[in-house]
Automatic annotation (TrEMBL):
Keywords: Coiled coil, Cytoplasm, Gluconeogenesis, Glycolysis, Isomerase. It comes from the Bacteria. This is Glucose-6-phosphate isomerase. InterPro entries: G6P_Isomerase, Phosphoglucose_isomerase_CS, SIS_dom_sf, SIS_PGI_1, SIS_PGI_2. Pathway: Carbohydrate degradation; glycolysis; D-glyceraldehyde 3-phosphate and glycerone phosphate from D-glucose: step 2/4; Carbohydrate biosynthesis; gluconeogenesis.
C-alpha cells in the first residue's frame, strides 16, 4: 500500500441504512440501488459539462502548474518583507482561507495570532463591522503590512469598502506612490473594478478562472496565496484534490463515494431530512464545516429548477463541533424532529498524544478517565454519540480522515465540491449560480448609491413591509 493509500478518506454510510436505524427513518440498500441510475446520469452530466469547460473546479488540481510556481515565488519573495498578511474578502473569497489556516497551521486560528516560523501573521477580514474593522487596523503597522484583496466580481461592497479603508491606511503611511506595493489583487482577469484598480496602482495580480465560482475557488489563488504565505504546502493540497478527483470519476456507483453520498443526501432530503449537519470531531476541521455551509447553501438553495419551475428546494446546512456541541446541540439532534442527516468528520490520528493524568482513583465517576488519552476520549465521544443517534433512529454517517494534513484537506475540499455538484444535478437545480444573493447585493447598491441615501433609507424604513414592525 502506498503512503497516499494510507491517507485516503473513508466514508462509512452504515448508519443511514434502515437495518441500522429502522425502516421508517433509514434508507434501504434497495432504494439506493433503484436510484443509482439517476446518480449515474448525474455523473454523466457533470462529466459532459466538464468536457464543455463548464466545471472549472475539476480542472484546478491539474492545470495550475504555472500559477503554483508564481504563488510560491511570490510567497518566498514577500514573506520576509511583511509581518502581516491581510486577506480582504467575503464568502467564497474568505472561508477557504480560514479553513486552510485552521486545518493546517493552527487549530485555534483567529484574527489575532502571533507570527510563526518566519511567516507573516495572517488575518482574514470578512466583515464590515466598524469596531472589528478598526480593531484590526489598530493591530497593524502599515509599513509591514501586505493586503490581499480578493473579489471575483471585483465589486462586492463589503470587500471594496475595506479596500478603500486599507488603501488610505497604507497611503497615509507610505505615500500614494507606494500604495501598489502593499496590495495583491485576486480577481477576474477582465471584469469588475478590482482589475482596473490593480492595473492603475501597479499591484501584483492573481486570477480566478471565469468558470470557477467563488464557493468552489479555495484551490485557486483565492485560497492558495494565503496558504503559501503561511507555509502551507499548496502542491500537496492540489495533489490531494487530484487523488480525490480520480476517485470521483469512477463510474461504478458503489466505488464512487461522492456519487453514493450525493445520492444519499438527495434521498434523505426527499424523505424529509431537510437539515444537513456537518460535525467534525476535530478543532482543525472546524472551519471546513463553515466553508461547506456556504458551498451547500448557495449551491442547492434554489427557487427554480433547471426548467424554470418554482421549486424552492435546498437542505439547510448546519455546522457543529464535536465534542463541544454535544453539550449544546445534541439534545435537539437526539430528540427533536426527524429532519436531520448528520455527517461526522472523524480524525483517526491526531498530531498530539495527550494523556489524561490518573488521580482520584477512589472516585468511580472520575477515576475512569485517568490513563486514557485525549484522542481516545474525543473519538469515544463521537462513537457514543453515533450509537445514541442510532438508538434514536437518527440518520448519520462518518467521513474518516486518517490525519489532517494538506493532502487529506485537498481530498476533503474536492470531495464536498463534487458531491455538491452531484446533489445539485439530482435536485435538478443549477448548483453554480446564486441569484438570491445578487438581489440583496443590488438592494444594497440601490439604497447606498451615491445620491439621496437618507431619503432612500427613510423610504425603506417606512415601506409597507416595515410599517407594522413592533418597536420595542
Ligand atoms: O468574490 P466576490 O465576487 O467578492 O464574491 C463574494 C461572495 O459574494 C456573494 O455573496 C456570493 O453569493 C458568494 O458566492 C461570493 O463568494
Amino acid at each position: 500500500m502506498s503512503v497516499k493509500e494510507d491517507l485516503r478518506l473513508k466514508l462509512d454510510i452504515n448508519n443511514v441504512f434502515a437495518e441500522m436505524i429502522g425502516e421508517e427513518h433509514g434508507l434501504t440498500v434497495k432504494e439506493l440501488e433503484d436510484a443509482k441510475e439517476e446518480a449515474l446520469r448525474a455523473h454523466q452530466n457533470i462529466l459532459e459539462a466538464e468536457a464543455e469547460g463548464k466545471m472549472g473546479f475539476m480542472e484546478l488540481p491539474y492545470k495550475q502548474e504555472e500559477v503554483v510556481k508564481e504563488l510560491k515565488e511570490t510567497a518566498e519573495e514577500l514573506k520576509d518583507k511583511f509581518d502581516n498578511f491581510v486577506v480582504l474578502g467575503i464568502g467564497g473569497s474568505a472561508l477557504g482561507n480560514i479553513a486552510v489556516q485552521t486545518a493546517i497551521n493552527d487549530p485555534h486560528y483567529n484574527l489575532f495570532e502571533e507570527a510563526r516560523n518566519g511567516y507573516p501573521r495572517l488575518f482574514v477580514s470578512d466583515n464590515v463591522d466598524p469596531e472589528g474593522t478598526k480593531a484590526l487596523l489598530d493591530k497593524l503597522d502599515p509599513k509591514k503590512t501586505l493586503f490581499n484583496v480578493i473579489s471575483k466580481s471585483g465589486s462586492t461592497a463589503e470587500t471594496m469598502s475595506q479596500f478603500l479603508l486599507a488603501r488610505k491606511f497604507i497611503a497615509d503611511a507610505v505615500g500614494e506612490e507606494n500604495v501598489g506595493e502593499h496590495f495583491i489583487a485576486t480577481t477576474s482577469k477582465d471584469s469588475g473594478y478590482l482589475i482596473e484598480i490593480a492595473k492603475r496602482e501597479g499591484m501584483k495580480k492573481f486570477f480566478i478562472p471565469d468558470n470557477v465560482g467563488g464557493r468552489f475557488s479555495v484551490l485557486t489563488p483565492v485560497g492558495l496565496l494565503s496558504a503559501a504565505m503561511t507555509g502551507v504546502d499548496i502542491e500537496e493540497l492540489l495533489d490531494g484534490a487530484a487523488y480525490m478527483d480520480k476517485i470521483c470519476r469512477e463510474d461504478d456507483f458503489w466505488k464512487n463515494p461522492a456519487l453514493v453520498n450525493g445520492l444519499i443526501q438527495y434521498l434523505a432530503y426527499k424523505k424529509g431530512k431537510i437539515m444537513n449537519v456537518m460535525m467534525p470531531y476535530s478543532d482543525r476541521l472546524r472551519d471546513v464545516a463553515d466553508w461547506y455551509r456556504q458551498l451547500w447553501a448557495e449551491s442547492l438553495g434554489k427557487e427554480v429548477d433547471r426548467q424554470g419551475n418554482q421549486v424552492n428546494v435546498g437542505p439547510t446546512p448546519i455546522k457543529a463541533l464535536g465534542a463541544t456541541d454535544q453539550h449544546s446541540q445534541a439534545q435537539l439532534y437526539m430528540e427533536g424532529p426527524f429532519d436531520k442527516i448528520i455527517t461526522f468528520l472523524e480524525v483517526e490520528n491526531f498530531g498530539e498524544e495527550l494523556e489524561i493524568p490518573g488521580a482520584y482513583q477512589d472516585l468511580a465517576g472520575l477515576g475512569y478517565l485517568g490513563g486514557h488519552s485525549f484522542d481516545e476520549l474525543i473519538n469515544t465521544e463521537k462513537w457514543a454519540t453515533e450509537l445514541a443517534l442510532n438508538k434514536r433512529k437518527r440518520m448519520n454517517q462518518t467521513l474518516k480522515v486518517p490525519e489532517v494534513n494538506e493532502f487529506t484537506l485537498g481530498q476533503l475540499f474536492y470531495f464536498f465540491e463534487f458531491q455538491t455538484a452531484v446533489t445539485g444535478e439530482l435536485l435538478n437545480v443549477n448548483a453554480f449560480n446564486q441569484p438570491g444573493v445578487e438581489l440583496g447585493k443590488n438592494y444594497t447598491y440601490g439604497i447606498f448609491g451615491r445620491d439621496g441615501y437618507q431619503e432612500k433609507k427613510d423610504e425603506f424604513e417606512n415601506s409597507a413591509s416595515h410599517k407594522d414592525d413592533l418597536i420595542l
